[in-house]
């Protein structure tokens, strides 16, 4: 049998097979799902949370002062009106008012008196202290920020990692360490910077960066792909000649 007729293809390039209708349908569906799912979940979450707050706040408003009842009276409407979000607005103003009162002398005294009563209740005391600690930890992050971005040698000498300096070590931690100046450094993980390691590093081993904490966070989240101000230090070709 000649090589041409031996049943094998020699050097013949076959055109790629076209995907079937079902495969193309599946690919298009997955692509659309990637686009639609985040938008749909976000809208659903906002709509659900808004309705939950409305259902919790609006029952405290007298019936004749309900927003939908006022609108129905003004416009002579027979059908009920679903004004979703009014409860959120009322809750926002109420919370701001409580915060304003709590900052005053009378508000602080009232809170201290209320907490002293709660401390005498065994079960309620544990629940209140736990919820208060979680709330303070979560909400205080909006006011406290990292001081500087830095570089430290981690996990060994010669390998550098980006960290965030929060404060200088104090108290018992500093007293137990051999160095006089020690920095508290948070070492984030990539691509999720909300998790990481808390390190106490001698100040002489910390290399501070000029970039902002936000730019350093972008660098960590992007795994080094987004370099903040990367072109600032590059000299133009005209200057090098």
What does this structure look like?
With 241 residues, the chain is an alpha+beta fold. The chain has a domain at 148-221. It is 47% helix and 13% strand. The chain contains eight helices and five strands. It has helices at 21-57, 67-75, 86-102, 105-118, 122-139, 171-176, 213-221, 237-240; strands at residues 148-153, 160-168, 182-188, 196-202, 207-208. A five-stranded antiparallel β-sheet has the order 4-3-2-1-5, with helices on one face. β1 (148-153) and β2 (160-168) form a beta hairpin. α1 (21-57) crosses α3 (86-102). The longest helix has 37 residues, at 21-57.
| N-C termini distance | 69 Å
Helix content: 40-55%
Strand line-up of the largest beta sheet? 4-3-2-1-5
Apparent shape? flat
Strand residue percentage: 5-15%
Radius of gyration: 31 Å
Question: Which structural class do the helices and strands define?
Answer: alpha+beta
Which residues sit in consecutive blocks of at least 5 with pLDDT less than 50? 232-241
What sequence of helices (H) and strands (E) makes up the elements?
A: HHHHHEEHEEEHH
Rounded average pLDDT: 78
Strand tally is 5
**What is the tally of helical segments?**
8
